[in-house]
Write a structure and sequence with these properties.
- With 159 residues, this protein is mainly α.
- The chain has 8 helices and no strands.
Length: 159
């Protein structure tokens, strides 16, 4: 099972917290949600690249994050559609939709972080940024929902 290295657990915890805080945004606007998540991921990617001594500007990081978001757009859109469907239930539906949006953001941010850590551990400072945008879509997967959830909780509790 692949997990986030301890050296990156603090940065990952910050990204996961920011993603969770964007739950209300995603419950009401998918476009705004994608923009904020791309920003969170771009900041995370720049942080990890900096720690690994790989030069990367924010524009490149945001492009890579957009590529990842577009690569998993179908699944992401399905999750956001489900959270929007809950909003049809008066009162409690909005709360459920916000919660679902936050959970989706956290899960995908974790999987993005896992992917970034795997790429840097495999390629190190010889990272080819042009190839990263194309490869990140195929690498964007976790360890299964239960294992990912366990690792996310571990990062939050100990990271």
């Amino acid at each position: 099972m692949s997990t986030i290295p301890n050296a990156y657990s603090s940065a990952t915890k910050t990204a996961l917290t920011a993603a969770a805080a964007c739950g209300p945004i995603g419950a009401f606007s998918s476009v705004a949600d994608i923009g904020t998540i791309a920003g969170i991921w771009g900041t995370y990617l720049c942080n990890i690249a900096y720690r690994e001594h790989v030069a990367m500007d924010k524009t490149t990081a945001v492009q890579i994050c957009k590529s990842a978001l577009l690569g998993m757009a179908g699944y992401y859109a399905g999750c956001k559609t489900a959270s929007r469907a809950f909003e049809l239930i008066p009162g409690a539906g909005t709360v459920i939709g916000i919660g679902l949006s936050a959970l989706t953001n956290v899960l995908f941010t974790y999987r993005f972080a896992l992917t970034v850590c795997a790429i840097f551990s495999e390629q190190g400072t010889s990272l080819k940024l042009g190839e990263l945008a194309g490869n990140i879509r195929s690498l964007f997967r976790g360890n299964g929902l239960m294992r990912d959830t366990k690792d996310i909780l571990s990062i939050w509790m100990h990271g």
